[in-house]
Amino acid sequence: MRVIKSYVSAMDKINKILMWLIAILLGVMFLSLLAQVLTRYVVKASLHWTEEAARFAIIWTVFLGVAVATRQKALIAVEVVIQYVPLKVKKTLMIITLIFTGMFMLYLTYLGVNLSMNSANQGSTALGIPMWVPYASVPVGSFLTFLNTLVILFELLFKLEKESELI
């Protein structure tokens, strides 16, 4: 039980770091788009790299944000059935859902690693960075989402939260 609580605590710390990283990426996105607008309409010359930098920042923000939102149980879910079933059935359905979600995230991680490896020799058009950098957001975000799915599953199985907070 101590190992599981340590794991949950470690993932919560990782998620705090991810929140800071997401904030930085949103700042990069904002500043690059602001620079694009200012140079285009004030200086009358366009920066060629800003749109690509903003796009890559958005991609990383989405995949890291899904991981954090998973832990916070802030993702959209269809809960019509879950609201009207007894608690025991509710927990069983949630466990099944979490297992399938975890399996899908591991599969997406596998596909993302392959995508990143296959694009290792490609460069981005404007920034000139290797394309594995933006593509790596898929396996990194998917694996972090898997790890956060495990946290929720452990909380559900080992009653680390109150029953009312689980759902």
UniProtKB/TrEMBL annotation:
Protein name: TRAP transporter small permease
Any Pfam family the entry gives: DctQ
Membrane topology listed for this record: Multi-pass membrane protein
TM spans (from-to): 20-41, 53-71, 92-112, 132-158
Keyword Transmembrane helix: yes
Stated family: Belongs to the TRAP transporter small permease family.
Naturally occurring in which organism (per UniProt): Sporosarcina highlanderae
InterPro entries the record matches: DctQ, TRAP_DctQ
